[in-house]
What we know:
There is one protein chain. By secondary structure, this protein is of the alpha/beta class. It has one domain: Carbamate kinase. It contains eight helices and 16 strands. The protein has helices at 12-24, 36-45, 66-90, 139-146, 169-179, 214-219, 222-236, 252-257, and strands spanning 2-4, 31-33, 52-54, 60-62, 95-99, 106-110, 114-118, 121-125, 131-136, 150-154, 157-159, 163-165, 184-189, 207-209, 241-246, 262-265. It has an eight-stranded mixed sheet, sandwiched between helices. A four-stranded antiparallel sheet has the order 4-3-7-8, with no helix packed on it. The longest helix has 25 residues, at 66-90. It is globular, with a radius of gyration of 18 Å. The chain binds adenosine-5'-diphosphate and magnesium ion (MG). Adenosine-5'-diphosphate binds next to helix 7.
Amino acid sequence: MIKVGGSLGAEMARACADIVRLAQQGADVVVVHGGGAEADRLAAELGRPVRTMTAPNGRHSRYTDAPALDALVMAMLGRVKPKLVAELTGAGLRAVGLSGIDGSLVTARRTPPARAVVDGVERVVRDDFSGRIHEVDPALLLTLLDGGFVPVVSPPARDPADGMLNVDADRFAARLSVALAADWLIILSNVPGLLRDPADPASLVAEVPGEELGPYLDGAGGRMKVKLRSAGEAFQAGVPHVVLADGRLDSPVLAARAGAGTTFVRGSR
Ligand SMILES: Nc1ncnc2c1ncn2[C@@H]1O[C@H](COP(=O)(O)OP(=O)(O)O)[C@@H](O)[C@H]1O
Ligand SMILES: [Mg+2]
């Protein structure tokens, strides 16, 4: 399972080259991508600037009202995914683009209405279309892998009540890796891995104790925190090899498999 961060942009081509190598060697590969950065661009083009909401605990998140969900889905399924599928197909793979709603792959439950500050005003937010993953049904992916296809998957997830929901792409990758009993979960982003100091690329934490992430979670910034937490959940659920690595390297997947980035290990250090 390889998750390529939306923050990578055109640098995703490097991960694609590795994905082609692995798939041609016979590995079953599933690619997950997000689209936050592209959604922000598209939203700006559409004149619907992205808004954030701030929970009483200070946590910031994307305010996904109906127009924002629409832009997010268009960005992920209309821009990011076809580029990845075309790139992989051009290199000789049989890549197939899917989202969490296809074949009921990922079902989510909507986050209940909650108090938050939006545009400087505190109110109860009732029109946010984001949620938490409830269930994963990997049947469709298994069928595709069996047929020699390379699935390229992303949010949204399916909500039995409300149609589509935005869910976090790192968590999406983590949950799929567990459901597929993957050997590897490699999360590629635009940083070398977990950094002790986000401003210092040399401050890489090379190993984290996968069962005791607490102190590391406290130290990580919002976007890295969800990666760490999601990856930790996959590790604790039995995915043996979990790595947060740099997608900007020449051969980022092979580098991650060879120990680059932040590797999850058993036991405390
Ligand atoms: N401790 C940390 N170590 C590394 N990155 C961090 C840390 N804290 C915050 N970050 C931020 O997390 C970002 C990666 O998350 P994100 O932007 O969501 O990328 P992606 O599109 O790959 O999910 C980095 O670019 C960095 O700005
Ligand atoms: Mg992210």
